[in-house]
Design brief:
The chain is of the alpha+beta class and 143 residues long. It is built from four helices and six strands, in the order ααββαββββα.
């Protein structure tokens, strides 16, 4: 099922995304996005530039960086189709967040991502957050 990602470049890309979320590093997250990247929300039935979404998410990144919030994101894939400088991936991500004194909130989301390799770096061109997923669906995908 996994494509010829022998050098693990895409796994490394998703690790960079996770680290940026976990550390509240908005600039590191922005560096994983194509400048014309698009975010599509299946739940909200809307589409916007990732650069606009990053403005909206800025407070959560700042709160994470300052310690007011703990956040994490993990990815599991059901399909990875790669070319030399393009990739289309399908799977589920688990976004977890916790405010001081509260329980962890977990969001499981079916998603698709379209990535391009620019100057040796992978960048997300399209992130389609399709619909909610269940913990059981998450568990069914390989780690």
């Amino acid at each position: 099922l996994l494509a010829q990602d022998t050098d693990g470049e895409l796994d490394e890309y998703w690790n960079r995304v996770s680290t940026a979320v976990r550390t509240g590093n908005l600039e590191a997250y922005r560096a994983t996005c194509h400048q014309d990247g698009v975010l599509i929300s299946g739940k909200a039935k809307k589409s916007e530039l990732l650069s606009q979404a990053l403005i909206r998410w800025g407070k959560e990144f700042a709160d994470t960086r300052s310690g007011k919030l703990q956040a994490d994101v993990k990815f599991r894939f059901s399909e990875r189709i790669m070319g030399k400088d393009t990739a289309h991936e399908k799977g589920i991500f688990l976004y977890s967040s916790k405010k001081k004194g509260e329980e962890w909130k977990k969001d499981y989301v079916h998603f698709e991502a379209l990535l391009v390799k620019k100057g040796g770096d992978w960048k997300i061109l399209m992130e389609f957050q399709k619909s909610s997923a269940t913990p059981k669906e998450w568990e069914s995908l390989a780690k």
